[in-house]
Amino acid sequence: MKYQLTAHEARVIGCLLEKQVTTPEQYPLSVNAVVTACNQKTNREPVMSLSESDIQDLLDTLVKRHFLRTVSGFGNRVTKYEQRFCNSEFGDLKLTPAEVAVVTTLLLRGAQTPGELRSRAQRMYEFSDMAEIEGVLETLAGREDGPFVARLPREPGKRECRYMHLFCDDMDSLITAVEAVSPSGDDLQTRVEVLEAEVAELKERLASLLAHLGD
């Protein structure tokens, strides 16, 4: 897959995607605006502290890779940047507004559950219900030109599985995340035995209850 980004590149693109939708009157963004967006403390995980020179280097690299383009002239006294990562005239990656919201939120905050994504992406897209966002995630995971997201195993004690984006080149993070929540063979066997015992106990209680009702 050609959309392989570093964590810092993902942050820059995520910020541009976010601001394009949430503050269109301030878009495209100047270097200073990108610095502020990347380092903001809300809706970011992890919180970063990138310098202006760091951001400029990232912007230059992303322009060379055709993920961004510069906008100058027409009254702009400073160079500004807009994303060409998706839905651009010359790019191949096409996403619906709902998919843009999900991808952007994953780029900015890492792995999240569908419930978290629905809540955090609402400034970009209003999902009608959980079924809609789950459908978007399934589509992104099954894209022929992807996959663009992956579902992680459910963590112990959690009701929902988390999803992570696959636009970064560090696949070690995916492996680590899976290993961290995947039970070992012994643990899995123990859990199965416990569940089987609970089912057997429930069957006995049900049989006893039915017999009592029959009397």
TrEMBL record:
The keyword Coiled coil applies. Pfam families: DUF480 (PF04337). InterPro entries: DUF480, WH-like_DNA-bd_sf, WH_DNA-bd_sf. Residues 185-212 form a coiled coil. Keywords: Coiled coil. The keyword Coiled coil applies. NCBIfam families: PRK11239.1. Belongs to the UPF0502 family. HAMAP family: UPF0502. This is Uncharacterized protein. It comes from Raoultella ornithinolytica.
